[in-house]
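We modelled the chain as a single entity of 483 amino acids. Its sequence is:
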Amino acid sequence: MDITHATLKELSTQLQSGALTSEQIVTVFLKQIETHNTELKALLGVAEDALDQAKTIDARRKAGESLHPLAGIPIVLKDNILVKGWKATAGSKMLENYHASYDATVVTRLRQAGMILLGRANMDEFAMGSSTENSFFGPTKNPWDTRKVSGGSSGGSIVSVAAGFAPVALGSDTGGSVRQPASLCGIVGLKPTYGRVSRFGLMALGSSLDQISVATKTVEDAAMLLQVIEGEDKKDATTSVLEETTIPALLEPSVKGLRLGVPKEYFVEGMDSEVKSCVEEAIEQLKIAGAEIVEVSLPHTPYAIATYYLIQMSEASSNLGRYDGVRYGYSSQAGTLKQSYEQTRETGFGAEVKRRILLGTFALSAGYYDAYYKKASQVRTLIKQDFDQAFTQVDALLTPTSPSVAWNLGEKFEDPLAMYLSDIYTVSVNLATVPALSLPCGFAHDLPVGLQVIARPFDEQMLYRVGMTYQTMTDWHTKTSFV
């Protein structure tokens, strides 16, 4: 077995049977990281006690203790998810030397399951970006072609899975930050329904949009990992009480009798023709599998990018007000308190973060609030109503994840609007608070392409059903990059 490209399910089976130990698995992944991370820059740090964590799990299993099926399997965390005692930089100079003082709720649940916390993944600074080029620590490169971007903002998490640094990872998805890089790097990215997973211990970007999300090699792996971290949390008032949880082993990979919608607004001018062909072929495969394909309309889609960025930037300007150089994080000393504030934020934040803070503060300012933030919030309601209406006609929606494959490093870096448009197919999902899944569906220009499946709120099982059906019919998810 090639451990570096084994699935979560395969590793779980090997551990439970005794064919492999956690120490053996972690050792292989650490070697893979040592060999390739300098080039890819997917990880900003590796846990010094990773092998000790593994040995502890092995000893417990050897002693006959009943353990969680995922106990002993390593996982990578995006560097905006807090782990007590670990650095948590959010990819920024502002937090270059900050150490977390508590565990995020998802980390507590991973520990309870016995998973090995392996390392911290690189990311766009404060999750602001679509290419992981905005990291203070340098860009994460695509393992299929290191001249290309990884996507973002969770590029480090996604590349860690695609390059065999870990079988699974957690990222955050505010407007596509897990699904878009998953598409560009050829793996599975799942954004759960808003409120399904606690945000306690996740550094806030857009509080009404953020959702901790999972990156895996298969849809079944995504279901297995989400099962560990989901559920109500008293520390996050936005979490929901789940009426039921998914048992991956009981999922039926069949779409017979399902009505799957294809939004006509998502197949318009501007999409790469080869990407379009891959997605259309994937839709045809699901039709062959027994699904009825129905054209639907999401009429407010053209307003999604503007609406999303107004809301996200406004919420970001508020959330990042806490970084003042006084309480924690980077501090630049100056003659007066005001000068200290200004110098701290001028030198501590990168260009993209400052751009979004300025635009967000403007949108919230007196005289402009009604014209910008309030209007965007009203349009957000219309976008959500579009999805509600579509789901009265169909069981799920099928769309591209990204309008293009991975582009060259630096190609869009100086063109913010072009960068923002790369999220055109993903931001509506966060605005509408619905769940979505990206899975590999082919190659264009020798680079991976992703198919996005969108479902009703809290109907992740529908995503699994459609995604697993597609993966039983194709082998795109088994393709591995150069490493």
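As a brief sanity check on the tokenised model: The mean pLDDT is 95. The first helix runs from residue 8 to 17.
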